[in-house]
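Collaborator request, handled under Task 6.
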Amino acid sequence: MRHKINVVEIIVSILDTVIKIAIFVFLANIIYRGALMAYDYGFRVFTEAPVSIGEGRIISVEVKKDMDSRALGEMLQKKGLIRDSRIFFVQELLSEYRGKEVPGIYDLSTAMTAEEMLEVISQEVEEEEEEEITPIAQQTEEELYIPEDDEAEGEGAEAEGEAAE
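Structure tokens returned to the collaborator:
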């Protein structure tokens, strides 16, 4: 009888070891695949190429005031300007243009990278600054100074030179 118990214990021990090895291989495989996906994702965040090479297509997009970077990425992906809205979201988080998107209508090209698109979308609209006009009575002498023309100075110098001869 004692002999049969040892055989059962050995079989259970072997099965236990096989199951532990199978679980280890399974987990190692999941970790390996996850690492590959994470590397690929991270690599694409920093090296994502434009959708098209060369001139590309110009597409008008409207950035709305309440639009966050996720919604912006989804819109750009639907319009065919980027490949993956999730990568765009991470690129925007890591860029110097984070949260600086200005509402408006922009012409973007499929030949632009996400960073170039963010640069265009984040540019403040340069408003034409009107010069403040001050009445002449309030202006200083420096503000009223009118420089002489170079031509007038040149003619005056020639005339002085001829008079000296």
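The cover message to the collaborator said: "Residues 70 and 89 are 6 Å apart (CA to CA). Helices lie at 2-47, 69-78, 85-94, 114-121, 141-144, 150-164. Please let us know whether this matches your experimental observations."
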